[in-house]
Amino acid sequence: MVVAVYPYPLALMAIFHNDWTMGDMHCQVSGFIMGLSVIGSIFNITAIAINRYCYICHSLQYDRVYSIKNTCCYLCLTWLLTALATVPNFFVGSLQYDPRIFSCTFAQTVSSYYTISVVVIHFLVPLLVVSFCYLRIWVLVIQVKHRVKPDTKQKIKPSDLRNFLTMFVVFVLFAVCWGPLNFIGLAVAIDPVRVAPNIPEWLFVTSYFMAYFNSCLNAVIYGLLNQNFRKEYKRILLALCAPRTLFMDTSKCGTEGLKSKPSPAVTNNNLAEVNL
């Protein structure tokens, strides 16, 4: 939402003016917010994968490891690491305006060592962690399905399996959409003098917009694979098309709930009050 409210309108202005006219401060802030969005996405996907791994593969210890207090700490830690991973861009000077995409973004040619570090820490390592977690979950799902371990105490609910499949598809699409841009950055960082001039502009632009198109795909994935999301999408569409009907349905549900409320049990005290 923050990206849609701030960096994207600035990119539209750059398109209209065919140049960046908003000054360096807006350029830096816009690039920083875009970086938070990207790194926050991959770190949250990694955190969710670890959570699903613990929930399905180590269910007996899950409640202790993911208590409410611990879960809040994990969430804060995820976003703290996201901020710490994005701040070094200011010191390296890697947030620059790129006329090919009309946006202030991470410049891959500023520092080879920093670009390699970004690709490894922000993409390859999380990719390996998530792959490990989901691979272990798939192994357990296959074992339970074929009853390789009939004496196992671990059981997988259908709802847990559907949620796992949803997040697995989200992860696969994230890797597919963001992979080309990261591998281009890695190739440029390894040999910037030879590789950077030989990368076609259309390839970089396509990989860039393919990466950010991933955010649009998530809503489609949740809608296709999650029944709760489908119901809420229908409610949103109904509210947009016929808000009055939605209000009447909501009021009707509330009235029926009150009517269907069970009456208190008849006791001696109730009978006494009635007789009085």
Automatic annotation (TrEMBL):
It comes from the Eukaryota. It is found in: Cell membrane. Keywords: Biological rhythms, Cell membrane, Disulfide bond, G-protein coupled receptor, Membrane, Receptor, Transducer, Transmembrane, Transmembrane helix. Residues 1-222 form the G-protein coupled receptors family 1 profile domain. The chain crosses the membrane at residues 29-50, 71-92, 112-142, 163-190, 202-225. InterPro entries: GPCR_Rhodpsn, GPCR_Rhodpsn_7TM, Melatonin_rcpt. Gene3D superfamilies: Rhodopsin 7-helix transmembrane proteins. Pfam families: 7tm_1. One of its GO terms (cellular component) is plasma membrane. It is a multi-pass membrane protein. One of its GO terms (molecular function) is melatonin receptor activity. The keyword Cell cycle does not apply. GO terms for biological process: rhythmic process. Belongs to the G-protein coupled receptor 1 family. High affinity receptor for melatonin. The activity of this receptor is mediated by pertussis toxin sensitive G proteins that inhibits adenylate cyclase activity. This is G-protein coupled receptors family 1 profile domain-containing protein. It comes from Albula glossodonta.
